[in-house]
What we know:
Elements: H1 2-21, H2 23-36, E1 43-47, H3 59-62, H4 70-84, E2 113-114, E3 119-120, H5 127-147, E4 158-159, E5 174-175, E6 202-206, H6 208-211, H7 214-217, H8 220-235, H9 237-242, H10 249-256, H11 260-273, E7 276-278, E8 314-316, H12 325-353
Antiparallel strand pairs: 1-6, 2-3, 4-5, 7-8
Helix pairs in contact: 1-12, 4-5, 8-11
Amino acid sequence: xxDARATNERRVRRLxxxxxxxxxxxxxxxxxxxxxxxxxxxxxxxRSALLKPVEGGPLLTRLVLPRGVALRFYLLALFExxxxxxxxxxWENVLPLSGPGSWSDMIASDGAxxxxxxxxxxxxxxxxxxxxxxxxxxxxxxxxxxxVGGERPDQALVEIxxxxxxxRLYPSFRLLQESGRGSHQSPxxxxxxADHWHPSKTVTIxxxxxxxxxxxxxxPSEVATWLALRVLSKWAPDKHQQSGVFLYGDARKEQFxxxxxxxxxxxxxxxxxxxxRFARPMKDGEPAVxxxxxxxxxxxxxxxxxxxxxxxxxxxxxxxxxxDAVKVCHRELTLRQHALDRRxxxxxxxxxxxxxxxxxPQWDGGEPEMRFEGV
Length: 375
């Protein structure tokens, strides 16, 4: 519980600072300017290759890291590309790394925090120091995206040219396909995909995810969970509408690289934020899923779970994205912090006052610390 309290407390503190320094609103303003001045896509189309299992695990879950903004930056790059380019258009960089309307301007940051004093460093509310911090975050994201494949350079999601002394030339980076660089001598430069009816090809992200700040405030673990649910809802739209979708066991780990605790914690936070909801219980005798010829996601085509572990079924609510992400997340995480603090105080009282009693309520999916093993 201590780790969950510390993680939640850190998120609340960062959200409060983002409200104070205005970075969340400024970043959303930059994205809205790109959207209104461009093609105004209703959805951003993402190739499902980003979520597919490959050697070393799906590229998406390898970007679920405790530090850095690599996953956020990659999704923002797709957003910028599709605001500017038509289907089939090939990406080329037209933005500077820093300055007005730059890549750095798309990133909301709380600033540099001094853990010893418990305060934010001076100069991080705006101005040059804040801009330099965002620039370093963008450069760090580009390094992570280039190195995401480890010893497999064909899985890199960006390519950064080198100068004569071997230094990275960040402003000249190239965005690559969701499946990675590819094994050919010429890299697979990103092109805008058309939306495909089959989930093995594409999944969509509503533009409101970017315009209302959700891309800035959801944790990478929550984004990965949310995208997995979007794939499932597209794979089985009738089942999603009627009784919800679920994911558990080997399918969760092997298809999406999601461990059970990360999945359950991610779902609980998405429920709190109003981005998903519990579906109605299945009727007695209703099969888990209808027969399907699907050749990629067999995640639902498996035996019904044993009675002792009946997974929750969820429905994705796109209307929840119309809310202000910072306000919603700050409210819900603050309420959670109060609950975690009360529970910790009760445990402490039990330990001081005598033999510890079982003060833990039935687990509601909200306690496990989010983590991705092997990432």
